[in-house]
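Weekly puzzle thread! Below is a chain. First person to post its structure in token form gets bragging rights.
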Amino acid sequence: MLVSLLFILTASPTDDWREFRGPDGTGVYTGPKLVTEWGVDRNVAWKIPVPGRGWSSPILVGGKLILTTAVPAADGGQTLAALCYDAATGSELWRRNLFIVDAAKAGQMHKKNSHASPTPVSDGEKVWVHFGHMGIACLGLDGKEIWTTQKYVYKPVHGTGGSPILVDNNLVFSVDGGDQQYVVALDKNTGDEVWKTDRKTTAAMKFTFSTPLLLEAAGRRMIVSPASDFVAAYDPVIGQELWRATYPVKGWSLISRPVYTQGLVIVQTGYTTQHLIAIDPTGSGDVTNKIIWKNRKEAPNTPTPIAVGKELYVISDDGKLTCFDAKSGTIHWTERLRGRAYSASPILANNILYLTSEEGVGQAVKAQMTGYEEMSHADLKEKTFATFVPSAGALFVRTETQLYCFKPR
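Winning reply:
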């Protein structure tokens, strides 16, 4: 108890990791050094079993780890819940069952997805959890419900995956189902709708799962949200579409989050012929002619790339790590990673890339333009789809059944 209290007392906003891929959605951690070796019996500070099934990454707020899960019922329904753990000890602080949905409402799920895949988001005082077409909830950090809604119902295809983001006083998320496609902003304190913008898409395959990104380019703030066949930017205040760029080849089922680096918005274009494209975001209207570079070689479908200075590190779904020049799209090097398949996005800590395969095979790799250099590798011996969370020298990893904390021992 004393250790837990000391952790909370010394925790600060700089230790927090409040959304998918952390501060500003970049995946970059700047705190004390993390372990570079981890495993089921290596540098384990604590581990606890997590009930149900979910691929949402945890977030960390004020010494509390918060994640979502879905507990299946015998009839095919799901109990959708938020869980909170003490980051210092792993002890459960609270558990809230938020929605109980039947099999019909839950829908069919892709074998790589779950009913609890979107990552929560927090402003340091409240937390918002998103279960796509099944419901959204706002909670206090003590787990008490502030508001819930099941208003945003759409036809899921393979389930849901995109996480919400906070923009000023709004909760923003994309809906790209089989029947409806729009971006919407809700008042974060009440759940009331502030704006809703139709995608106006003509794509044949309309479903996708990407998480939006807030950025500022040339003095203009915008929310960039990839859709099937195009990526668009929206005004954060009124939701008006500012620009859109059409992909070189039609694409659908987009999963990774946009990256903003070197003055360019970089997105992957989805199945079946994926590309990486880099767009100058300073235009208006149709900005397809502002695609600065495109590259099909080793483009991912699932893991979000990570920018490190002038470099862009990209993991393909089949496990190749490629270092690009972010400005030109030139490839510096490509290396085959351990593990057969990749879904989790990398993080960067102290100029080291932390990666994990779907099988739980992890690696620490130096981020350097000069060539591939592995520092260590690990095996957690079970499925790992969630992105790692670093904070105050600790590395938190969610696997299929466990939540780990790794620290030097």
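Puzzle host: Confirmed. Bonus trivia for everyone else. Residues 1 and 89 are 8 Å apart (CA to CA).
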